[in-house]
Write a structure and sequence with these properties.
It is a single chain. The protein has eight helices and six strands. It is of the alpha/beta class.
Length: 210
């Protein structure tokens, strides 16, 4: 399958997921009129498509755990929040929430750590937003069953990108990649006080790649 078809298959798989207590940022059916602007899912699909196209030649993949409500849930881009899109001020990337300024600490930590490198691309084992039942603006770890669904999409992502190096950000990602038979180097997730450990690990790993 050529790269264009692989990317189309990846996007179709992202859009097709429908799970309880999970928001699919890329599917219109999961848009919340109390939180999302009209056409929000299409905005997020466009954001992600442009991000993937800009990083299609990346040879290092950072694989996180799941989309967070203050980040990928409203931007469509892993480890990226709306506040960062506003600061970037690139008209090709749009805001999708009614609030328009969600800010995520982990997203900022990741981007500050990576700097201007464009040879690194971000993804999640579970590329959708798992939340507590009835609490759309909350986060939770994906269940084992959910991770299995996400691993199918992760396989499509890795087949599309074919990175030379994979870094697992957090134990959830490390375990999933191990089950898939994908060799990955572990880095502490930046959430819950892990920012310094994450930065130290990534700086060490990326300096090795230079």
């Amino acid at each position: 399958m050529n790269p264009s078809r692989r990317s189309s298959a990846l996007l179709a798989a992202l859009m097709g997921a429908a799970l309880p207590s999970v928001c699919n940022p890329y599917a219109e059916r999961d848009c919340d009129p109390a939180l999302d602007r009209p056409g929000a899912a299409a905005i997020r699909r466009t954001n992600l498509t442009r991000y993937l196209d800009e990083h299609r030649h990346a040879h290092i993949a950072l694989i996180g755990e799941a989309a967070g409500y203050a980040g990928c849930r409203f931007t469509g881009i892993p480890f990226t929040c709306e506040a960062q899109l506003r600061e970037r001020d690139d008209p090709r990337y749009r805001i999708s929430s009614l609030r328009g300024n969600f800010d995520e600490r982990s997203a900022r930590c990741v981007w500050q750590t990576l700097g201007q490198r464009d040879d690194v691309i971000l993804w999640n084992v579970f590329p959708w937003h798992p939340h507590q039942p009835g609490q759309p603006l909350s986060n939770r770890l994906p269940t084992a069953a959910e991770i299995r669904v996400g691993m199918g999409v992760l396989a499509l992502f890795l087949d599309w990108l074919r990175p030379k190096r994979v870094i697992a950000v957090g134990r959830v990602a490390e375990r999933a990649l191990c089950k898939m038979g994908t060799r990955a180097t572990y880095a502490r997730h930046p959430s819950h006080g892990g920012q310094r450990a994450f930065q130290s690990a990534i700086h060490s790993l990326l300096n090795f790649e230079l």
